Amino acid sequence: MAIKIIVGAVIGLTCLVLLIAYICFYKVFYSSNKTKKFKEEYPIPVGDIYEPFRDKMVLYIKKARELPHRELSIKSHDGLTLRGRYYEYSPEAPLEILFHGYRGSAERDLSGGINRCFKLGHSALIVDHRGSDTSDGNIITFGVNEHLDCINWVNYVVEQINPKAKIIITGISMGAATVIMASSKPLPKNVVGVLADCGYSKGEDIIKKVMRDMKLPDNLLFPFVRLGGRIFGKFDIDEASPIDALKNCRLPILFFHGSTDAYVPHDMSVQNFEACASSYKKLITIDGAGHGLCYPVDPEKYLSEMESFFSKVLK
């Protein structure tokens, strides 16, 4: 009888652990109905901090839709079809590959990036991450798999668009984490720099921070988040991180972060900057900018700093 009780208790506990792990996986990593939430005519991020910039963001999207562009797609290392849109400034122009944020989309998060690229004389390739909008998949991995997708997009540009292209890999929020992680891997010499806007230091750190904001016990729940990712998502959130990748980064890298970012703390970019092994790096703080709003808040400074920083590597 005692053995049956013990076995039953073990089975019950195991089921409870798996249930909690699945709930955590679903809440953090699973992207359900990924196209449904982008059905509004002009999607912009949700939150009071974005309302003052609504008209500007809508204008960015309208202009992006009107510009000539090519629909592109690639296959990921695990068989997903990933999609993007290529906006050519000129055949010889430097080319930026841009990656959006967590649960965002290329159109929502990166239409302003197209505007910025054209002002700098750059072509733009905006990419929907796996599990977002037009791309396949339902699992978000906080850069663990996305940075491998970034490398595949770089190779696609070199092989299919312009073998002589000078490429800057650009990301905002989770997209910044993605390009940072890619920067530590072998890349074609075409990649001349990295732009990381409001990126986090580690997937674990940002997940725990959001849990604390929600008044949840982060140290208690995070092991279930990680377990859920490993069992149901087939990846380990701790497998790769921006701050670790930066220890091996040798590419020129420009960091941006808003001083009033309440989602990804400004200090995370400070940590990333300090960890970066590149001999050519710079951190720009945009005063009064919330999460993902550095360019809308101060476009003149953003453009000036980008032009100054990347002019040396684009000559």
Question: What would you note in describing this structure?
Answer:
Helix content is 44%, strand content 15%. With 315 residues, the chain is an alpha/beta fold. It has an eight-stranded mixed beta sheet with strand order 1-2-4-3-5-6-7-8, sandwiched between helices. It is globular, with a radius of gyration of 20 Å.
**Number of alpha- plus pi-helical segments:** 11
SS content category: alpha/beta
* Helix proportion range: 40-55%
Relative strand content: 15-25%
Mean pLDDT, to the nearest integer, reads 93
Give the tally of β-strands. Answer: 8
Q: Write the element-wise H/E pattern from the N-terminal end onward.
A: HHEEEHEHEHEHHHEHEHH
Biggest β-sheet: strands ordered side by side in the sheet:
1-2-4-3-5-6-7-8
Q: What's the Cα radius of gyration?
A: 20 Å
N-to-C span: 79 Å
Main sheet makeup: 8 strands, mixed
What is the overall silhouette? globular
Unreliably modeled segments: none
